[in-house]
Amino acid sequence: MNTSLFHWRHRVTYAECTIGNHVYYARYLDILEEARGEFFRHAGQPLTRLQETDTLLPVIEARLRYRGAARYDDVLTVEVAIAELAKVRLAFNHRILHESGRLLVEGATVHACTSLEEKPKRIPSELAAALAPFVVTDAEGHGGRVGIAAPVS
Amino acid sequence: MNTSLFHWRHRVTYAECTIGNHVYYARYLDILEEARGEFFRHAGQPLTRLQETDTLLPVIEARLRYRGAARYDDVLTVEVAIAELAKVRLAFNHRILHESGRLLVEGATVHACTSLEEKPKRIPSELAAALAPFVVTDAEGHGGRVGIAAPVS
Amino acid sequence: MNTSLFHWRHRVTYAECTIGNHVYYARYLDILEEARGEFFRHAGQPLTRLQETDTLLPVIEARLRYRGAARYDDVLTVEVAIAELAKVRLAFNHRILHESGRLLVEGATVHACTSLEEKPKRIPSELAAALAPFVVTDAEGHGGRVGIAAPVS
Amino acid sequence: MNTSLFHWRHRVTYAECTIGNHVYYARYLDILEEARGEFFRHAGQPLTRLQETDTLLPVIEARLRYRGAARYDDVLTVEVAIAELAKVRLAFNHRILHESGRLLVEGATVHACTSLEEKPKRIPSELAAALAPFVVTDAEGHGGRVGIAAPVS
Asked: What domains can you pick out in chain C, each with its CATH number?
């Protein structure tokens, strides 16, 4: 059962914008990384600590759908949910919302679990247990293996 | 029939790398933008000229699959191919290769065609004609509507 | 008389780091921009509002001295102080500190005051009044026209 | 005597621009890094090779003067010259020019010479010999220790 989504607040800077006053399409991945880092801390598993226990979670796939433009000085809410929690991989679903509630971006990232030498390894059980409450299910509309986080085939 | 893929050469800088000596996952989208800009110039349709004729091609979807890490000072080859050329949208398939020939990243971007006021419009016929030779077909393995460029839903 | 420095907290992301686990030298300018944007809001003069009254503050000079490396996940404190408040220009002194108190970066930016058409104009009196409490003086060691904010000549 | 400046060509992308169609102030440091990397290769001393011989050249100071705006798709010329070649430090003077010849940015960077463990070391004699032809002198107007590359204190 899902307890709650994690939300992260982000204020848009000039550095993130491009011509036409909107956030450059690649910068949303920077913003998602920032939000995921805070999510892991919130779940009691900061990425720096995972690294000390020989665990990395490199992104092996990323997808973004741009629904609307974020502008300079906008306050964005980044939703972080886990779409898939498997033995050696992890997938996130993200939504980035304008403070008005308008959906701006849907994003999904798929991560492998590896050692520092980038060899695949199982997600440590302590990490899996900490993440489990954040796994969303279809009924909640964020879709385990459906929607934007579906495997590419 | 496809004449040839467009190729763009890119040398990796420190600015693009992150910890662990590999290109940060978002920076590949910057590199793809650079390559597409040069592709449009190569096709005789530089983006600055399209803008003067009230045509923008904003990205509405982007997908990346990370197959291997690009490192500082690596020389990358970015392949640019058109996966879909429709009335009001355009999709690109990209591959980023290491100079050894190793595949590092597969990327796809979907673009709308809009006016400067961001209203949807048909792709101008002159632009469509210039892009047509770069449309790839399934037999070539870059897949019109298959693979990573397939629609998400 | 100086009331107090403005302080801004920033957590380092992977996006900001480069090889060797330290923040890339250019990213500190992004961080300073973020801090200045928040400073203007704190002073009751958000940059978006200044823009509505035909006022821009483009950077005409920037200087950075790197004293130590900020690393992934470090929490930085960015100090914002005004080193010079003249008729048509404004200069900031910044220090970026590690949470341990260690000085990492000293930075200075010099800004012109212009209209949206980039023509020089006087700093509006309301803005000048709002900024005046943040002007630092030599005795405080952040130096009006000394140190890193000194004119280049 | 100076043989010649090194010049590097850079085409501006959307990724580098911000609101108002000009290059974001921090991105010029990325462009200077790219140009210096190519300069070291040109001088027969690629940075990757220096690293293999336990030599790093971290930036300890950077200064930029913004004289004009570079816009999307502009072709820039980056001049690279050595302003100072001392025992354990190295300083560069840069100018970024529009293809029309207009000066856009003056930049200076000061580098320490260190081991991979970031301990100061002398610039290896082979490196110093390779760089010597690129040292500019006052008479050429790029100034050894004058102008923007002058020491701050």
From this structure: 6-140 (3.10.129.10)
